[in-house]
Write a structure and sequence with these properties.
Blueprint lengths: L1 E5 L4 H12 L3 E6 L12 E5 L5 H7 L5 E4 L14 H13 L6 E5 L13 H8 L1 H15 L4 E6 L2 E3 L8 E4 L8 E3 H11 L8 E6 L1
Parallel strand pairs: 1-2, 1-4, 2-3, 4-5, 5-6, 6-10, 7-9
Antiparallel strand pairs: 8-10
C-alpha cells in the first residue's frame, strides 16, 4: 500500500514508519523536520510541511491509499496547544474530503473510555489531563462527523517495549486491566487496521 504517515517523528510514528517499510509498503512521511527520519534514506518519501495547514496536507496525499496518524501534543501540554488535536482533525478531514482518500487510522487516548474502571481511565484523564481529554474528544467528533472511513485507536500508557503482536483489542471499550501497550504493538495494529474493513467507523481499545 501507499501510506502517508503523520506524526512520523514521534515514538509511535517512528514505529509505524519502520514496520510499514519492513512490510514492503511505499511510505511517505509528512513532517516539519526531515532530519529526524534520515536513517531511512531513500526508502521513504519525505514531505515537509505544517500539519495544521489543510492545503499542504492535501498536496502530500496525492497518490496515497491510506493515512495513519500518530500525531499528538507534546508533554507537558502548552496552553497554546490546548486545541491542537481539534485543529489537526479539522485540517486533515478538510484535506481528505478534497481527495480520493477515504481510509484513515488515528491514535487517540484511552482517557476517553468513560466506562473503564480497571484502570479508571476517564477519571484519571479528567483529573490529570483535562485539557487533553477535552481536545481529544473534539478531535474524535470531527472525524465521526466527516463521513470518512476512520478508525480511532485508543491506547493506554505507551511503552518502548518490543512488539508482541499478542495485544488485546476490543471495540468500544478498553480491555480489562488495560494499563499499558508498547508503541510497537500500536503501530502493528494500525498497519493492520487500514487493510481491514472491520474497524471502519469504530473506536478501538488496545492494550497488552
Amino acid at each position: 500500500m501507499k501510506l502517508l504517515i503523520l506524526g512520523a517523528t514521534g515514538g509511535t510514528g517512528r514505529e509505524i514508519v519502520r514496520q510499514a517499510l519492513k512490510k514492503g509498503n511505499a511510505v511517505s512521511a509528512f513532517v516539519r523536520d526531515p532530519e529526524r527520519l534520515k536513517e531511512h534514506g531513500d526508502r521513504i518519501t519525505i514531505v515537509r510541511g505544517d500539519i495544521l495547514h489543510s492545503s499542504e496536507l492535501q498536496k502530500a496525499m496525492e497518490g496515497q491509499d491510506a493515512i495513519l496518524s500518530a500525531f499528538g501534543p507534546r508533554t507537558p501540554l502548552l496552553k497554546a496547544e490546548a486545541d491542537l488535536l481539534q485543529c489537526f482533525a479539522t485540517a486533515l478531514t478538510g484535506a481528505m474530503l478534497h481527495t480520493q482518500i477515504r481510509r484513515v487510522s488515528v491514535v487517540s487516548t484511552a482517557f476517553l473510555f468513560k466506562d473503564a474502571f480497571l484502570p479508571p481511565a476517564h477519571l484519571l484523564g479528567r483529573l490529570l489531563f483535562p485539557d487533553t481529554v477535552a481536545d481529544a474528544t473534539r478531535m474524535e467528533q470531527i472525524f465521526a462527523e466527516s463521513g470518512l472511513d476512520w478508525t480511532m485507536v485508543r491506547p493506554p500508557k505507551l511503552t518502548d517495549k518490543p512488539a508482541t503482536r499478542k495485544y488485546r483489542v476490543q471495540e468500544g471499550h478498553l480491555p480489562l486491566f488495560g494499563f499499558t501497550i508498547s508503541r510497537a504493538d500500536v503501530a502493528d495494529f494500525m498497519l493492520r487496521s487500514v487493510e481491514d474493513t472491520r474497524h471502519i467507523g469504530k473506536i478501538v481499545g488496545i492494550c497488552n
